[in-house]
Design goal:
alpha/beta, 25% strand, six-stranded mixed sheet, 2 domains, globular, Rossmann fold, 44% helix, six-stranded antiparallel sheet
């Protein structure tokens, strides 16, 4: 599967843009602020129904306009199909597949598997736990529809439980029986989420460690662990967890324990990457995480994901850069989109090594031009 073409109308800094892509590696070069990342963001919308900038959809609309249209032509084996994401002020967002509007955005998740490596991904290490849970949830949801359903229902019930806690505080009353009823609804979904995350870590760890070793080529040992407040992922374990924290929940007016408080912890040689990892170690850790994410998603979906690499090559030494480029070209079979400020850097890395089709695009002030195309056998 690969994205054959992209059409944008009033999306971010593009009034209108039509691009045809290589099924292999596509490189976008140009100065900061030219619009390179916006192209990757549009691809992210097509795959995951939202951008990766954590902004509202209306902020993706070109200044002065009322809507955006983001459309891709997808080639899958001998067949092609179309996916469109559009947003209009006052009407909201729609996902349309082969001219049929989806009733729920979640129906589309996993249809185009995607992995993105972004400059702010170091927040996975240094930022709050919410970002690490999001990393887990976005990946697992792309190949496990049951997990996604558990996640949606858990968030819905959690919001209602929290609203009830606030209502109790305002009314200066407490209803233990009502809390138990909400807990009974929450628990099955919490069990499903916890099980999905634990299985993911078990499958993910060896793949991640192998990629890290391949990039670093040193005797550093990486490890990630899944942290949960839950001692036993059973109904009884969840009942005890929620019941034992109920008094705190009553005081704080929100649910302080559960799957929404889980975390990932990262180590190199048993030392915290957050506290002791250098910038180079942190960046390598993140890239290894994402490459392992790619391989696991490919195995689960039985199709190669689309890979987005946004400005990740800056400040990497030549040795690590060469190893990452070799992995991209030799080990990953899917379509890749790369942005960088330096055409010379990308041309040097890929020109003599590429085993497949390679395209370079120049991006400057919202204008995109095909610079070079090389196909080698």
């Amino acid at each position: 599967m690969y994205i054959q073409s992209l059409y944008l109308n009033n999306f971010r800094n593009y009034e209108e843009l039509k691009l045809d892509f290589s099924s292999g590696i596509n490189c976008f070069c140009g100065p900061n602020g030219a619009g390179k990342t916006n192209i990757l963001d549009a691809i992210h919308y097509l795959a995951l129904t939202r951008g990766f900038r954590n902004t509202q959809d209306r902020q993706a609309v070109k200044k002065g306009e009322q809507y955006f249209l983001d459309q891709g032509e997808i080639q899958q084996g001998e067949h092609s199909w179309q996916v469109q994401c559009n947003f209009a002020q006052g009407k909201g967002k729609r996902m349309i597949v082969n001219k049929k509007t989806l009733k729920k955005l979640s129906e589309h998740i996993g249809r185009i598997p995607l992995v993105a490596v972004l400059p702010h991904d170091t927040e996975l290490i240094n930022g709050p736990s919410a970002g690490r849970r999001k990393f887990l949830d976005v990946l697992i949801s792309q190949y496990d529809s049951a997990y996604l359903r558990h996640l949606i229902q858990y968030d819905r019930i959690l919001a209602q439980r929290n609203a009830l806690l606030k209502q109790f505080a305002e009314d200066r009353r407490w209803d233990e029986e009502q809390m138990e009823l909400w807990d009974a609804q929450l628990i099955p979904h919490g069990i499903g989420i916890h099980a999905g995350r634990a299985q993911f870590i078990e499958d993910f760890q060896p793949v991640f460690a192998e990629y890290f070793k391949e990039i670093v080529a040193e005797d550093e040992v990486p490890r990630l662990t899944y942290y949960s407040q839950l001692e036993e992922n059973t109904e009884a374990g969840w009942i005890d967890l929620l019941k034992n924290n109920r008094q705190k929940d009553q005081v704080n007016q929100y649910t302080g324990v559960g799957a929404h408080r889980d975390d990932l912890r990262f180590f190199i040689d048993e030392q915290s990457v957050r506290n002791f990892g250098s910038q180079g170690q942190q960046k390598t850790f993140i890239i290894s995480l994402k490459l392992a994410q790619y391989q696991l998603l490919e195995k689960q979906k039985e199709v190669s994901p689309v890979l987005l690499l946004d400005d990740i090559f800056d400040k990497l030494d030549d040795q690590r850069l060469a190893r990452i480029a070799e992995i991209l070209d030799q080990k990953l079979r899917g379509q890749t989109f790369i942005t960088d400020t330096s055409y010379e850097r990308l041309a040097k890395v890929f020109d003599t090594k590429s085993s497949g089709e390679l395209r370079f695009f120049s991006v400057n002030s919202g204008e995109v031009e095909l610079l070079d195309q090389a196909t080698t056998s």
